[in-house]
């Protein structure tokens, strides 16, 4: 089986030692992504802005693997405060459109308190 490891140069990829995404066995596995403005490194306070930025990072990783949100089969949402999840629903619904994946939402601590949502996606490759 061929394995393709992909990096987008995120801050924690080198620090922690992981890839942004891996293509293997017909799937694209995208690591958990937080809402960072890649141009400035800024992290907005608003959870919906963070959600949009995280989805942008995921979208780019999927596109680099020849995939898209339309091919997503699983998504995991991780939030330090579960009450922040509902404001993100319209954004998530728009991202996945007519092809919603299975989903899990977990309330948990994230690597830094400034992050309010982390999103992980598995999609069909190609």
From TrEMBL:
Which InterPro entries does its entry note?
RutC-like_sf, YjgF/YER057c/UK114
Q: Name one Pfam family in it.
A: Ribonuc_L-PSP
Q: Which residues, if any, are the signal sequence? A: none
Q: What is this protein called?
A: Putative endoribonuclease
Species for this entry: Octadecabacter arcticus 238
